[in-house]
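Collaborator request, handled under Task 6.
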Amino acid sequence: MFQSVKKALVPVVSRLTPVDPFAGLSREKKELIDFAFQRFELRSFADLGGVWNVAGGYTFYALEHFPIEKAVLVDTDFTDEVVKRAQGFPALQLVHGNFGSAEIIAKLGNVDAAMFFDTLLHQVNPDWNVLLEMYAPKVKHFLIFNQQFIGSEHTVRLFDLGEEEYFKNVPHTRSEAPYDVVFQKMYEMHPQHNRIYRDIHNVWQWGITDADLIDVMKNLGFKMQFYKNSGQFGVLENFENHAFVFSR
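Structure tokens returned to the collaborator:
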């Protein structure tokens, strides 16, 4: 009798229990946002490259949890889901383009914070460090969550390791696009991105060390306010997930 009543109540309880729309997002990244937005009372931000695989989730998380006056989500590809969801947030502007271009950076204007989640290691021409320099005059805080390299003392360009070592240090196989052609077409022009395959942001580009990242930020006048090592990234022995907040 008890079991039958319990089964009957399950669908009722599930309807009454609120569903967390952000449950699928990284706990560590949400903690990073919570820390920075609360500690520094951030009211504006730019989420750079925040669409792929998360449908702008961290942008919408910040908009739902904090009193945001201006938000910018920049990416080269927007899903219908993101476009539709953005309509519910008047403070949010969607900007289509490569956030590494000077034209896009000029469009953004000044914001309290720039969010680089899983994107710095992809940035070439301008390189990741130059990109940070380009954004530095526009922001007061950097929120960075990146797969950091522990395989050497200094930052390495992964392509320079050679094909065999490259695929030992990325979470992709030779059969996945665009990895299946990147070494064969290294210096050919990519039809979508108008740059050579070696320089597209769709593939892993860098092994960035903590020491080099911290040194770059220090030279730009930013001090580290938060740091967390969340451990090894997948099966890659040379990469760990690290979170940072830098402020000036």
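The cover message to the collaborator said: "The mean pLDDT is 93. Strands lie at 44-48, 70-75, 92-96, 113-117, 141-149, 156-157, 206-207, 223-233, 236-247. Please let us know whether this matches your experimental observations."
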